[in-house]
Amino acid sequence: MPKADRYPFASSDAVWVIQHVRIINDDEEDVKMIGVYSTEQLAWEAVARLRLQPGFCNVPEGFYVERYELNKDHWTEGFITVYPNEFDTTNDRS
């Protein structure tokens, strides 16, 4: 069966990505990449299944479903890494 018949709203130029975010504290979060789906409907069906699972059921509002165009940069700038206590000078011995 052709893909178009099984998933009539599937797009060849985009996918749907699910992530789950759990806030740990003001400076830290736990982000999980859940999956990539051909349609928004399939993505939300996966969220419905996962919301019942341990951990996810404690933070059901943490799911994010987003459309991503294929063959496109979605992060277009550089990045920096800040390590814990990198700027903490309370134990500075200088």
How would you describe what is shown here?
It is a single chain. The chain is of the alpha+beta class. It has a 3-stranded antiparallel sheet with strand order 2-1-3, covered by helices on one side. The mean pLDDT is 85. The protein is built from 2 helices and 3 strands; from the N terminus they run αββαβ.
Short structural description:
The chain has a three-stranded antiparallel β-sheet with strand order 2-1-3, with helices on one face. It contains two helices and three strands. With about 90 residues, it is of the alpha+beta class.
Number of strands: 3
Q: Can you write the helix and strand succession as a string?
A: HEEHE
User: Which descriptor suits the 3D outline?
Assistant: flat
Average pLDDT, rounded to a whole number, is 85
* Strand numbers in spatial order across the main sheet: 2-1-3
How many helices? 2
Radius of gyration, rounded?
19 Å
What is the helical fraction, as a range of percent? 10-25%
Please state the oligomeric state of the protein chains shown.
single chain
Helix vs. strand class: alpha+beta
Uncertain segments of ≥5 residues (pLDDT<50)? Answer: none
Distance between the termini: 71 Å
Characterize the biggest β-sheet.
3 strands, antiparallel
The fraction of residues assigned to DSSP E strands is 25-35%
